[in-house]
Design a protein that fits this description.
With 590 residues, this protein is mostly helical. Helix content is 67%, strand content 1%. It has a domain of 396 residues: Up-down Bundle (Sodium/glucose cotransporter), CATH 1.20.1730.10.
Amino acid sequence: MDQFVINLIFVGASFALYIGIAIWARAGSTSDFYAASRGVNPIVNGAATAADWMSAASFISMAGLIAFVGYGNSTFLMGWTGGYVILALLLAPYLRKFGRFTVPDFIGDRFYSQTARLVAVISLLVMSITYVIGQMTGAGVAFSRFLEVDNTTGLLIAAAVVFIYAVLGGMKGITYTQLAQYCVLIVAYTIPAVFISLQLTGNPLPQLGLFSTHTESGQPLLQTLNEVLVELGFNDYTGMHAPQNTLNMVLFTLSLMIGTAGLPHVIIRFFTVPKVADARTSAGWALVFIALLYTVAPAVGAMARLNIITTIYPDGVREQPLAYDERPDWMHNWEQTGLLAFEDKNGDGFIQYYNDANPPEFAEELGWEGNEMVTFNQDILVLANPEIAQLPGWVIGLIAAGGLAAALSTAAGLLLAISSAVSHDLIKNMINPGISEKGELLAARISMAFAIALATYLGLNPPGFAAQVVALAFGLAASSLFPALMMGIFSKKMNSAGAIAGMIVGLGSTLLYIFTYLGWFFFPGTNMLPNTPEYWLFGISPLSFGAVGAALNFAAAYIVNKATGDAPAEIQELVEGIRVPKGAAGAVDH
């Protein structure tokens, strides 16, 4: 059977499943739409949270970033996983006990201020819209290859599918759709990794295969990869290299961690369970489900990088490389998307792949005039992995469905967070408090439709790889929402003026720093300073600044709080009630 037909079957079947679930779980009330009527089983919620959490950045982009940078990009693994632990232990149970639908809902009520609510909504929208760009980018990459359509058409198809099941089902539909998407994406990610680990090391567990003996060379796989990369003039895989200095690694990891804990689309998942105890239980299950993918990703990255090199140099890097006319089908296939490209710079008919900045001496003996793999979009690596390893067609179809499941599951969660902020926090709580439940539900669906249209448009103009765009979103969440949530729970004296000042300073400083070095992605070249380490403030990368923004947020909040007085006594009593474990073991809360 033709590979295109196989891809259509897998992708079409998964889409039919998602839409069918949405029809079955159609939201009939605002409680259904915002929080699935707080009736979701903790294990189901754990799987849905994992799917919501493991976005296109996790599934499609993270292994690619690790593959081409190595140890330095382990910060993504440490930051995202560690941040989820913070969320599960320090925020989720208390926010569930507070009993609201959205993050701005909590901030508005806890800080007894509509202004605080508005600033939280703005922060949520800026962060979520930035985040959703990465998901639409990932969906476009997957569609452009596996359904053989251009990027624009792929984004429109993805938007249409999300529109149907997210607008129709709301949180209730999205929850059960994300359960199905988790099953699809984890199987799709794991099966190719098992095959490739077996091929390279003989070990079926990729997590162990990464540290096993490479069958062909007879030495540890990572040692083999290090030696091959160094021979090609690249940095060794397991070392730390500039600009990944210690300060940036620490700040970037911290930014991802606290950004994770401030993600509104993940936090609202914990509002869907019946009890506070269930919030803790579902967080534990989610961590287990997330670990199944995150412990495999480093192996996927390392093994794929080695496979690419051995494909180009089947007889060793000092020998004649692969001829253009003999390049495998996977290269032909991905060249059609424009995400992979070669240029025969010396006209010898062979693919030469060395580091332009530090080419080995023997490269000149082969007539080398520059790296001839001129384009390799890192987002394609996981999706191309089954083809690189020459796995069966059904595995390629499965990875296509998995990549799309990862992108669409998180996109749906983000879009729900956006629409809830608009319909519930802006319209219901600020603009029109007297709106009927039917009217609020309609407003939620309309705002989600607008959010989908905006996300699709922005997905056509992404400022970077999926994981890079998502990293910016985490920095924005870290600098704006996370400090407000932490102070709202653990600082009973924090008042509204302090919280508002903190969010404005944190979000504003981070946006200013990002735009200074990256510019505004609608207008390339609008950055005020070059995005290079010598121009960064104290050597801090824009991707790492979220942690600094969070520190500024905390500092501004406490300074203003000291100058304006503590929160009212009734608010302090409310915060005490959130933290007291009373009812956590069994009572159904708000």
